[in-house]
Amino acid sequence: MFDTAAAKPLIEVKGLKMYFPITAGVFRAHVGDVKAVDDVSFTIYEGETLGLVGESGCGKSTCGRAILRLYEPTAGSVVIDGKDVLGADPGDLRRMRPKMQMVFQDPQASLNPRMTVAAIIGEPLDEHTKLSKSEKLARIYELMDQVGLNRDFANRYPHEFSGGQRQRIGIARALALNPKFIVCDEPIAALDVSIQAQVVNLLEELQDRLGLTYLFISHDLSMVRHIADRVAVMYLGQIIELSPRDAIYAEPLHPYTQALLSAVPEPDPEAEKTRRRIILTGDVPSPANPPKGCNFCTRCPKVFARCRVEEPKLTEVFPGRFVSCHLYDQTAGATAAPGATPST
User: Are strands 181-185 and 230-235 parallel, antiparallel or unpaired?
Assistant: First the structure.
């Protein structure tokens, strides 16, 4: 089990917001915002894998891209290895890029179809190093060996590879500059089930060997349980629960997390027979017009009056366990036990 007390923070995200403006009319007047990421804060420790989960459209990928400043965030701060990413000027940001990299969701779309594998993997070396041609080729071969690609394929093009092989090319490119931190944006979502385990095992092996730190974004809760040390659950642009992996899967605190995990099939047929699904009613509200109070109040089976008027804050309710829910608000009395239903 990963010990956060013994590790030092590598990534510190505070109050991160990513709003996309809504314009209307002939003069494109600003009439509102899509709150894709709304006041998100968390810490990732050196050598840790933080899983970021939630349903499609909740803001997971946008959060990952905003942390690396592939999008310009609206507000907040991101510190990576002691350096402020959001406050850096273009020159400083370029010098920081080698430490932070990304593996994209769709390996077909993220690789240039007109470049060979050697050129794709070598492009970061062209941009950020002054290696000679022979040194660069040696490094490309070394990276191909690390991710399990045959060196003989160096002059082939992306369309000549399977989905799993293309994702390995993307991983090799991300590793080229010896980064400390990698955002894995649903790296297995576009792959065959038979290939997914190979890619996840590769990521784990590289982490052990190279001391990498991951933000692993996924909607596959079973895979996150396998790879993550801690899990953050996102709903409508906000993190609503953050806990160690074993604790969150054994006893989820937030009603949304409980519903999410109740949908995960059990491999044991006997356990599957007794699994109780929590079916949420209604649709996810629009991030352009979130509900007043708690974002989840329109669908929560345990909602009460306070939820509709006051927004809960992400608070540590048990050691290492954070939840954004009035059920666990200590200011209103004793902390509720997991799964407790309040009086209305």
Answer: unpaired
Query: Distance between CA atoms of 233 and 246, rounded to whole angstroms?
Result: 14
List residues bridging with 243 in a β-sheet: 231
Yes or no: say if 214 and 205 are a contact pair by the CB < 8 Å rule: no
CA distance 259 to 311: 20
pLDDT band at residue 27 using 50, 70 and 90 as cut-offs: confident
Write b or e for each residue in 34-45: b if 16 or more Cβ atoms lie within 10 A of its Cβ, otherwise e. Answer: bbbbbbbbbbbb
Tokens of 34: 């899509």
In sequence order, which ranges of the chain are alpha helices (DSSP H)? 60-67, 90-96, 107-110, 117-128, 133-146, 163-175, 193-210, 221-227, 245-250, 255-262, 269-274
Distance CA 337, CA 340 (A): 6
| Contact (Cβ atoms closer than 8 angstroms) between residue 126 and residue 184 | no
Task: Burial-class residue 98 by CB neighbours within 10 Å (0-12, 13-18, 19+).
Answer: middle
In this prediction, residue 1 carries a pLDDT of: 63
CB within 8 Å of 26: residues ≥ 6 apart: none
- Are 227 and 203 a contacting pair, CB within 8 Å? yes
Q: Locate 315 and state its tokens.
A: 């608070």
pTM to 2 decimal places: 0.90
